[in-house]
Request: fold
Amino acid sequence: MSVLASTHVNPTRMELTKQKRKLVTAMRGHKLLKDKRDELMRQFLDLVRLNMVLRQKVEEGIRAANANFVIAKSAMSEQGLGTALMAPKQEVYLEVGKRNVMSVNTPVLNYKTRTADENDIYSYGFAYTSSDLDGAVKSLADILPDMLHLAETEKSCQLMAAEIEKTRRRVNALEHVVIPNAQENIKYISMKLDENERSTQIRLMKVKDMLLEEAHGYSKKE
Reply:
């Protein structure tokens, strides 16, 4: 901070106390925010690694499901396949909750199906369809939990990245603006108070000499 900025501060003992308290608070806040930023970064990197694993797993599952549907389509007529998949039998209910991670509300996705029976995913009779279609539908149903987990993780990564950036800006503001300003203000006020104290002492000494000279005709100059 420059001296010009310090001149806006009243050089009083009350202001000096205020600036010292501000400095202590800023330094404490700086340490807490740095610790928060470091912990957020640690958890963020863990989430990123998990996100990469989940994305790879989901993409492989989708590719496998698509391959199974291609095989099923080759064994059935297009009309027969469309009729079999026209009306889904199972229903999925998504529940969205939240988890607080270092003051960041990250989503928690849970789901329920209308029934717990695994065979309820097939909306067609087995007599007129290919067994390859059964495998295709099952492979697609199997990746649903991982898809929801991936969505949860990706959103959590976005939210935590935003919080890390916000915390980083706060740390930088304290480190490069607030703390140096308070230190400069304390230095400026202390200097002014010392100057005022020296001036006051000089004036008192002069007054004392004048009083002695008037009372006893004494002068230090003699």
About this structure: The radius of gyration is 37 Å. Helices lie at 3-6, 13-75, 78-84, 131-142, 144-216.
